[in-house]
Amino acid sequence: MKNIKVLGTGCANCKQLESMVRKAVEASGTEAVVEKVEDIEEIMSYNILSTPALVIDEEVKCSGRIPSQEEIQSLIA
């Protein structure tokens, strides 16, 4: 089971990324836990410069942008 985290303090882009990730997980049938992380200290622990960020199994896959739905699906596959 994958552990997927969407890092962001609650802006519109962060919410959009979370929604896209949840849709991608559902569409792919991947077993995953999706977590929205809004705690600034936890976000900073990933050493990213900007949000939103996508973390899969504790590895930062992208930050500072919203990847396409296809990119998200390939990252979680």
From TrEMBL:
Pfam family, one: Thioredoxin_3
InterPro entries: Thioredoxin-like_fold (IPR012336), Thioredoxin-like_sf (IPR036249), THIRX-like_proc (IPR005243)
Keyword match Disulfide bond: yes
The entry's keywords: Disulfide bond, Redox-active center
Catalytic residues of the enzyme: C11, C14
Keyword hit for DNA-binding: no
Domain Thioredoxin-like fold: 3-76
Disulfide cysteine pairs (residue numbers): C11-C14
NCBIfam families according to UniProt: redox_disulf_2 (TIGR00412)
Matching PANTHER family: THIOREDOXIN
Protein name as catalogued: Redox-active disulfide protein 2
